[in-house]
Amino acid sequence: MTDIKKGLAGVYVDYTAISKVNPETNSLLYRGYPVQELAATQPFEAVAYLLWHGGLPTDDELAALRATERAHRGLAPEVKAAIDLLPTGAHPMDEIRTAVSVIGATETAGITNVLDAVGTPAENLERSVRLFAALPAIVAYGQRRRRGLDPVEPRDDLDYSANLLWLTFGEEPDPVVVDAVNRSMILYAEHSFNASTFTARVVTSTLSDLYSAVVAAIGALKGPLHGGANEAVLHILNEIGDAANVVPWLDEALGQKRKIMGFGHRVYKRGDSRVPTMKAALDMLIAHYDRPDVAELYETLEREFVSRKGIYPNLDYPSGPAYNLIGFDVLTFTPLFVASRITGWTAHIIEQQSANALIRPLSEYNGPDERHVPGYVADAAALAVADRPEESAG
Ligand SMILES: CC(C)(COP(=O)(O)OP(=O)(O)OC[C@H]1O[C@@H](n2cnc3c(N)ncnc32)[C@H](O)[C@@H]1OP(=O)(O)O)[C@@H](O)C(=O)NCCC(=O)NCCS
Question: What residues make up the catalytic site (predicted)?
Fold first, then answer.
């Protein structure tokens, strides 16, 4: 019997030097640094640099990255035009997927030999920084469009996270809120071979270009078992409404075998290493907005669910209510994840290119036995092919 690893669970498919998830010690390291130390001390731009280059930037290196990032912050006219063509009811993940496609088509226009589209590592680093710079304006544009608001021009005097808030709300961002967004961006940036990153690596392994890999990754992230969970958490919290409703709601939901979004993880089985840092950021926001009711609902659901199932919250559980308190639309939550994870995805794309092997697993066939189309008469050429000892298939 073939040993099938459904969902590739427990399978090691390659090496990576970008991050290490250790469920035994409940830790997550980016290039060797514990993520909670990075979230407490670094601006997101420095963590992006770390993921791409392998070490934290010097002051000059950080200044250079910031200068490039600030120079590419605007919403390109062709991107705006493409989003405007979509129905206003389009999911923002579809807007972002479209936007990245348009950027890719624009930046690779004129490359007629498919072998050249993949780009050099240096070109792909530049492409990565430009996508990193462009995404906040795209995310913010989606939210403002849904609210019938005009876009806001980016501000050169603000760091990445403050500018993201400015672009979304058009108001001077509060330092507490900037800090919470900065921490969430760092926590969401990278997580080894998760589904969307692996998707990006699969596409890259065919020698396709960085934009195609990112578009595919966005599609994978949209699903509620992956990035879409932060949105789904808010739907659940809204459905429950109040801490007093948790017990009857949970009894019914578990009776119906519903999955409770924001809990459980494929790798972490004793708690997600990122949760305490994001929960601390959520607590800061709860104090800032004076919303003890949010804390009560959050903690009651966590306590009740963990005591019944022994399954712990993942990062989406605290980040959903945090983004909600800040004023992001629920539909904007997964796009914010994209704005962050673009750093991890692109670091993996570049790493995959540096030691590439086409990713092509095997499947065990369990369909009907060979059978024949009525009336078909094999010709000599087909019989000759069938006689070859081994034939590889794409
Ligand atoms: C993330 C997730 C897909 C990991 O799943 P996995 O390792 O493949 O584990 P499974 O989905 O097979 O779950 C194993 C068992 O735990 C249960 N379980 C896991 N997560 C659960 C949840 N959030 N709510 C209720 N039950 C859950 C499953 O129903 C299953 O029970 P069973 O053995 O009685 O059938 C899963 O925990 C989940 O769907 N969580 C909710 C979505 C989410 O928050 N995703 C974001 C991840 S960062």
Answer: 265, 316
